[in-house]
Write a structure and sequence with these properties.
This protein is α/β, with parallel strands linked by helices and 306 residues long. The protein has a single domain (5-32, 103-294), classed as 3-Layer(aba) Sandwich (Rossmann fold), CATH 3.40.50.300. Helices cover 42% and strands 9% of the residues. It contains 14 helices and five strands. It has helices at residues 16-24, 39-43, 56-64, 68-71, 92-104, 120-130, 143-154, 159-174, 188-193, 195-206, 243-246, 249-259, 262-265, 279-292; strands at 4-9, 29-31, 111-116, 135-140, 182-187. α7 (143-154) packs across α8. The longest helix is centred in the middle third of the chain and has 16 residues, at 159-174. The protein is globular, with a radius of gyration of 20 Å.
Protein backbone atom coordinates (compact mmCIF):
# COMPACT_ATOMS: atom_id res chain seq x y z
CA UNK A 1 0.00 0.00 0.00
CA UNK A 2 1.25 3.52 -0.81
CA UNK A 3 1.75 5.36 2.47
CA UNK A 4 2.25 8.81 0.95
CA UNK A 5 1.33 11.74 3.20
CA UNK A 6 0.18 15.15 1.93
CA UNK A 7 0.39 18.35 3.98
CA UNK A 8 -1.77 21.16 2.59
CA UNK A 9 -0.52 24.21 4.43
CA UNK A 10 -0.95 27.96 4.20
CA UNK A 11 -1.69 31.17 6.07
CA UNK A 12 -5.34 31.38 7.23
CA UNK A 13 -7.80 32.39 4.45
CA UNK A 14 -5.27 31.49 1.74
CA UNK A 15 -7.49 28.84 0.14
CA UNK A 16 -6.40 25.84 2.20
CA UNK A 17 -10.00 24.75 2.76
CA UNK A 18 -10.89 25.06 -0.93
CA UNK A 19 -7.83 23.05 -1.92
CA UNK A 20 -8.62 20.50 0.79
CA UNK A 21 -12.12 19.93 -0.58
CA UNK A 22 -10.95 19.79 -4.19
CA UNK A 23 -8.31 17.16 -3.40
CA UNK A 24 -10.74 15.24 -1.21
CA UNK A 25 -13.01 14.82 -4.23
CA UNK A 26 -10.28 12.74 -5.90
CA UNK A 27 -11.12 9.02 -5.53
CA UNK A 28 -7.57 8.16 -4.42
CA UNK A 29 -7.09 10.93 -1.85
CA UNK A 30 -8.49 11.23 1.66
CA UNK A 31 -8.02 13.75 4.47
CA UNK A 32 -8.19 12.86 8.15
CA UNK A 33 -10.53 15.75 8.94
CA UNK A 34 -11.60 19.22 7.85
CA UNK A 35 -8.54 20.77 9.48
CA UNK A 36 -6.00 19.60 12.01
CA UNK A 37 -3.44 21.98 13.49
CA UNK A 38 -2.64 20.09 16.69
CA UNK A 39 -0.44 17.25 15.46
CA UNK A 40 2.68 19.21 16.41
CA UNK A 41 1.29 19.65 19.92
CA UNK A 42 1.45 15.88 20.37
CA UNK A 43 4.93 15.79 18.86
CA UNK A 44 6.42 18.43 21.14
CA UNK A 45 4.67 17.03 24.23
CA UNK A 46 5.66 13.39 23.95
CA UNK A 47 7.33 13.64 27.36
CA UNK A 48 3.89 13.75 28.96
CA UNK A 49 3.43 10.11 27.96
CA UNK A 50 6.74 8.74 29.21
CA UNK A 51 5.09 7.49 32.41
CA UNK A 52 3.18 4.92 30.33
CA UNK A 53 6.38 3.14 29.32
CA UNK A 54 5.87 0.69 26.46
CA UNK A 55 2.25 1.83 26.12
CA UNK A 56 3.32 5.43 25.45
CA UNK A 57 2.09 5.58 21.86
CA UNK A 58 -0.95 3.45 22.58
CA UNK A 59 -2.11 6.04 25.12
CA UNK A 60 -1.15 8.90 22.80
CA UNK A 61 -3.22 7.40 19.99
CA UNK A 62 -6.24 6.97 22.23
CA UNK A 63 -5.99 10.61 23.28
CA UNK A 64 -5.53 11.64 19.67
CA UNK A 65 -8.75 9.93 18.63
CA UNK A 66 -10.61 11.81 21.37
CA UNK A 67 -9.82 15.12 19.67
CA UNK A 68 -13.11 16.83 18.64
CA UNK A 69 -11.97 17.41 15.05
CA UNK A 70 -10.97 13.78 14.70
CA UNK A 71 -14.24 12.62 16.24
CA UNK A 72 -16.08 14.39 13.44
CA UNK A 73 -14.29 12.08 11.01
CA UNK A 74 -15.07 8.92 12.95
CA UNK A 75 -18.85 8.77 12.72
CA UNK A 76 -18.62 5.37 11.06
CA UNK A 77 -15.58 4.23 13.00
CA UNK A 78 -15.78 4.93 16.76
CA UNK A 79 -12.71 5.07 18.98
CA UNK A 80 -13.56 1.66 20.47
CA UNK A 81 -12.85 0.01 17.10
CA UNK A 82 -9.14 0.84 17.17
CA UNK A 83 -7.05 -2.30 17.53
CA UNK A 84 -4.06 -2.23 19.86
CA UNK A 85 -2.05 -4.16 17.28
CA UNK A 86 -2.44 -1.28 14.85
CA UNK A 87 -0.92 1.26 17.23
CA UNK A 88 1.83 -0.68 18.97
CA UNK A 89 4.51 1.65 17.61
CA UNK A 90 8.02 2.68 18.67
CA UNK A 91 8.34 6.29 17.53
CA UNK A 92 6.28 9.30 16.53
CA UNK A 93 6.50 8.63 12.80
CA UNK A 94 5.04 5.16 13.27
CA UNK A 95 2.42 6.68 15.54
CA UNK A 96 1.37 9.06 12.75
CA UNK A 97 1.25 6.30 10.13
CA UNK A 98 -0.78 4.08 12.47
CA UNK A 99 -3.61 6.56 12.90
CA UNK A 100 -3.47 7.67 9.25
CA UNK A 101 -4.07 4.06 8.26
CA UNK A 102 -7.33 4.15 10.20
CA UNK A 103 -8.51 6.67 7.60
CA UNK A 104 -6.71 5.06 4.67
CA UNK A 105 -7.92 1.48 4.99
CA UNK A 106 -11.73 1.81 4.62
CA UNK A 107 -11.42 3.08 1.05
CA UNK A 108 -7.87 1.91 0.39
CA UNK A 109 -6.88 5.50 -0.38
CA UNK A 110 -3.44 5.83 -1.92
CA UNK A 111 -2.79 9.25 -0.43
CA UNK A 112 -3.79 10.64 2.94
CA UNK A 113 -3.77 14.35 3.70
CA UNK A 114 -3.60 16.73 6.63
CA UNK A 115 -4.66 20.37 6.24
CA UNK A 116 -2.85 22.96 8.37
CA UNK A 117 -3.49 26.70 8.59
CA UNK A 118 -2.61 27.55 12.18
CA UNK A 119 0.19 27.01 14.69
CA UNK A 120 2.49 27.39 11.69
CA UNK A 121 5.79 27.68 13.56
CA UNK A 122 5.47 24.38 15.41
CA UNK A 123 3.93 22.54 12.48
CA UNK A 124 6.68 23.61 10.09
CA UNK A 125 9.31 22.57 12.63
CA UNK A 126 7.66 19.17 13.07
CA UNK A 127 7.33 18.55 9.32
CA UNK A 128 10.97 19.49 8.74
CA UNK A 129 12.18 17.18 11.50
CA UNK A 130 10.26 13.96 10.88
CA UNK A 131 8.36 14.12 7.58
CA UNK A 132 11.19 14.48 5.07
CA UNK A 133 9.36 12.25 2.57
CA UNK A 134 5.99 14.01 2.83
CA UNK A 135 4.47 15.93 -0.08
CA UNK A 136 3.96 19.51 1.09
CA UNK A 137 1.59 21.75 -0.89
CA UNK A 138 1.93 25.40 0.11
CA UNK A 139 -0.89 27.62 -1.13
CA UNK A 140 -0.10 31.36 -1.18
CA UNK A 141 -2.57 34.22 -1.55
CA UNK A 142 -2.36 38.01 -1.82
CA UNK A 143 -2.30 39.31 1.80
CA UNK A 144 -4.55 42.24 0.86
CA UNK A 145 -7.34 39.88 -0.19
CA UNK A 146 -6.65 37.74 2.88
CA UNK A 147 -7.17 40.82 5.05
CA UNK A 148 -10.51 41.54 3.36
CA UNK A 149 -11.65 37.93 3.71
CA UNK A 150 -10.67 37.82 7.38
CA UNK A 151 -12.38 41.13 8.12
CA UNK A 152 -15.55 40.04 6.32
CA UNK A 153 -15.82 36.73 8.14
CA UNK A 154 -14.39 37.50 11.56
CA UNK A 155 -14.83 41.23 12.10
CA UNK A 156 -12.24 43.75 13.27
CA UNK A 157 -8.69 42.87 12.36
CA UNK A 158 -5.41 44.79 12.34
CA UNK A 159 -4.03 45.38 8.82
CA UNK A 160 -0.52 45.85 10.26
CA UNK A 161 -0.46 42.59 12.20
CA UNK A 162 -2.39 40.85 9.44
CA UNK A 163 0.40 41.71 7.00
CA UNK A 164 3.09 40.88 9.54
CA UNK A 165 1.73 37.43 10.40
CA UNK A 166 1.24 36.66 6.68
CA UNK A 167 4.88 37.49 5.90
CA UNK A 168 6.14 35.46 8.85
CA UNK A 169 3.97 32.42 8.11
CA UNK A 170 4.74 32.41 4.39
CA UNK A 171 8.48 32.71 5.06
CA UNK A 172 8.41 29.87 7.58
CA UNK A 173 6.49 27.56 5.26
CA UNK A 174 8.75 28.42 2.32
CA UNK A 175 11.73 27.28 4.42
CA UNK A 176 10.44 23.72 3.89
CA UNK A 177 11.61 24.02 0.29
CA UNK A 178 15.13 23.35 1.55
CA UNK A 179 14.08 20.64 4.01
CA UNK A 180 11.78 18.33 2.06
CA UNK A 181 12.17 16.17 -1.00
CA UNK A 182 8.70 17.11 -2.24
CA UNK A 183 7.65 20.76 -1.89
CA UNK A 184 5.12 22.50 -4.15
CA UNK A 185 3.91 26.10 -4.23
CA UNK A 186 0.49 26.97 -5.60
CA UNK A 187 -0.72 30.53 -6.05
CA UNK A 188 -4.36 30.98 -5.11
CA UNK A 189 -4.92 33.43 -7.95
CA UNK A 190 -3.66 30.98 -10.59
CA UNK A 191 -5.56 28.14 -8.93
CA UNK A 192 -8.97 29.83 -9.22
CA UNK A 193 -8.27 31.28 -12.67
CA UNK A 194 -6.93 28.13 -14.36
CA UNK A 195 -8.20 25.40 -12.07
CA UNK A 196 -7.95 22.41 -14.40
CA UNK A 197 -4.46 23.24 -15.62
CA UNK A 198 -3.18 23.93 -12.09
CA UNK A 199 -4.76 20.75 -10.73
CA UNK A 200 -3.22 18.67 -13.50
CA UNK A 201 0.22 19.97 -12.50
CA UNK A 202 -0.53 19.38 -8.82
CA UNK A 203 -1.71 15.83 -9.48
CA UNK A 204 1.50 15.15 -11.39
CA UNK A 205 3.45 16.32 -8.34
CA UNK A 206 1.39 14.02 -6.10
CA UNK A 207 1.81 11.07 -8.46
CA UNK A 208 -1.86 10.57 -9.34
CA UNK A 209 -3.89 11.14 -12.49
CA UNK A 210 -6.13 14.18 -12.67
CA UNK A 211 -9.79 13.34 -12.09
CA UNK A 212 -12.70 15.55 -13.21
CA UNK A 213 -14.48 14.84 -9.92
CA UNK A 214 -12.08 17.35 -8.39
CA UNK A 215 -13.77 20.19 -10.27
CA UNK A 216 -17.15 18.98 -9.00
CA UNK A 217 -16.13 19.01 -5.34
CA UNK A 218 -18.96 21.42 -4.48
CA UNK A 219 -21.56 18.72 -5.11
CA UNK A 220 -20.34 16.90 -1.99
CA UNK A 221 -20.38 19.91 0.34
CA UNK A 222 -23.10 19.77 2.99
CA UNK A 223 -23.91 22.58 5.45
CA UNK A 224 -20.69 24.60 5.18
CA UNK A 225 -19.92 27.26 7.77
CA UNK A 226 -20.79 30.86 6.93
CA UNK A 227 -17.11 31.64 6.38
CA UNK A 228 -16.92 28.88 3.75
CA UNK A 229 -20.21 29.46 1.93
CA UNK A 230 -18.48 29.64 -1.48
CA UNK A 231 -17.65 25.93 -1.21
CA UNK A 232 -21.17 25.08 -2.38
CA UNK A 233 -20.42 26.62 -5.78
CA UNK A 234 -17.99 26.04 -8.61
CA UNK A 235 -14.62 27.69 -8.10
CA UNK A 236 -15.15 31.46 -8.34
CA UNK A 237 -12.67 32.44 -11.04
CA UNK A 238 -12.58 36.17 -10.20
CA UNK A 239 -12.27 35.89 -6.43
CA UNK A 240 -9.14 38.02 -6.14
CA UNK A 241 -7.95 41.65 -6.38
CA UNK A 242 -11.04 42.78 -4.47
CA UNK A 243 -8.72 44.81 -2.26
CA UNK A 244 -8.34 47.31 -5.12
CA UNK A 245 -11.82 48.73 -4.52
CA UNK A 246 -12.29 47.84 -0.86
CA UNK A 247 -9.14 48.91 0.98
CA UNK A 248 -8.38 52.51 1.93
CA UNK A 249 -4.93 53.99 1.40
CA UNK A 250 -4.43 54.08 5.16
CA UNK A 251 -5.19 50.39 5.63
CA UNK A 252 -2.90 49.56 2.72
CA UNK A 253 -0.13 51.62 4.28
CA UNK A 254 -0.52 49.70 7.56
CA UNK A 255 -0.61 46.34 5.78
CA UNK A 256 2.50 47.16 3.71
CA UNK A 257 4.33 48.20 6.88
CA UNK A 258 3.52 44.83 8.42
CA UNK A 259 4.22 42.68 5.36
CA UNK A 260 7.54 44.37 4.59
CA UNK A 261 9.54 43.23 1.56
CA UNK A 262 7.80 39.85 1.28
CA UNK A 263 4.79 41.26 -0.61
CA UNK A 264 7.17 42.62 -3.29
CA UNK A 265 9.35 39.50 -3.34
CA UNK A 266 6.33 37.32 -4.10
CA UNK A 267 5.16 39.61 -6.89
CA UNK A 268 2.03 40.95 -5.24
CA UNK A 269 3.33 44.50 -5.60
CA UNK A 270 5.38 46.00 -8.42
CA UNK A 271 7.45 48.08 -6.01
CA UNK A 272 8.99 47.80 -2.59
CA UNK A 273 7.06 49.60 0.10
CA UNK A 274 9.05 51.34 2.80
CA UNK A 275 6.02 52.12 4.91
CA UNK A 276 6.77 52.91 8.52
CA UNK A 277 4.30 53.52 11.28
CA UNK A 278 4.76 55.49 14.46
CA UNK A 279 4.98 53.96 17.92
CA UNK A 280 1.48 55.20 18.74
CA UNK A 281 0.06 53.71 15.53
CA UNK A 282 1.74 50.41 16.26
CA UNK A 283 0.40 50.43 19.81
CA UNK A 284 -3.09 51.09 18.47
CA UNK A 285 -2.75 48.18 16.03
CA UNK A 286 -1.46 45.96 18.84
CA UNK A 287 -4.49 46.75 21.02
CA UNK A 288 -6.80 46.19 18.04
CA UNK A 289 -5.24 42.80 17.32
CA UNK A 290 -5.27 41.63 20.93
CA UNK A 291 -8.93 42.61 21.34
CA UNK A 292 -9.77 40.42 18.34
CA UNK A 293 -7.90 37.35 19.46
CA UNK A 294 -9.51 34.95 21.90
CA UNK A 295 -7.42 32.85 24.25
CA UNK A 296 -5.67 30.18 22.12
CA UNK A 297 -7.47 26.89 22.42
CA UNK A 298 -6.08 23.48 21.62
CA UNK A 299 -9.12 21.34 22.25
CA UNK A 300 -7.25 18.16 22.89
CA UNK A 301 -5.19 19.47 25.80
CA UNK A 302 -7.86 18.70 28.36
CA UNK A 303 -7.43 14.99 27.67
CA UNK A 304 -3.63 14.93 27.77
CA UNK A 305 -1.89 13.40 30.79
CA UNK A 306 -0.68 15.79 33.49
Amino acid sequence: MNDKIIFVIGHPRSGTTLLNKVLLAHPKINFITFEFNDLSYFYFNQHLYEKYGKEKYLMMTKDFFKHPWIQLSLIQQPVESIKTSNINTNNFQQFVHSFLNEFRLPKDNNLIGIKISDNITNNVSMIAQIFKDAHCVHIIRDPRDIFLSTKKNFGTVSPFYGGKSWAENVSQIMSLKNELKHYYELRYEQFVTNSKEELEKLCSFLGVDFDNQMLEFYKKIINPSKSHSLLTKKIVTNNFNKWQTNLSDKKLELLYAGAGAKIFQLGYSDKEHNSRISFLERLKEFILEKSRLSVPLVLVRQSLPR
